[in-house]
């Protein structure tokens, strides 16, 4: 996933390898790559309690990143998530609107959302009509 995004944006990348002993608990986290004097963008599928992304942001900043953003598909934001994000060094945490975020955004100004309703509607339309859904990976409807 990281190399695909980096190739499309024509940028270099680093990654964070994490090992879990159990759910919502990271045992070990290792940064692979150089982020010194760069803006870092964390990309993940979902964030629940946000312990992992906040720990990753700290690791990136301690490795020399100048700014850290997070981009997430699903922002669950349960338990201590909002206070963790508020106290973390993120410039912004951007999520899709697969889960309503308006209420959480009132308590955490770093959260921003991207409306993906049009792309979901187009994917459903294409599936219903037997058309290519993979076409959407390179042709995003606006």
Automatic annotation (TrEMBL):
Q: In which pathway does it act?
A: Metabolic intermediate biosynthesis; 5-phospho-alpha-D-ribose 1-diphosphate biosynthesis; 5-phospho-alpha-D-ribose 1-diphosphate from D-ribose 5-phosphate (route I): step 1/1
Q: Which domain of life is it from?
A: Eukaryota
Q: What keyword terms does UniProt attach to this protein?
A: ATP-binding, Kinase, Magnesium, Metal-binding, Nucleotide biosynthesis, Nucleotide-binding, Transferase
Broad EC category: transferase
Catalyses which reaction?
D-ribose 5-phosphate + ATP = 5-phospho-alpha-D-ribose 1-diphosphate + AMP + H(+)
What is any Pfam family matched here?
A: Pribosyl_synth
| One record GO biological process | 5-phosphoribose 1-diphosphate biosynthetic process
Which GO cellular component term is one of those annotated?
Answer: cytoplasm
Supply the name of the protein. Answer: ribose-phosphate diphosphokinase
Species of origin: Origma solitaria
> What does UniProt list as this organism's lineage?
Eukaryota, Metazoa, Chordata, Craniata, Vertebrata
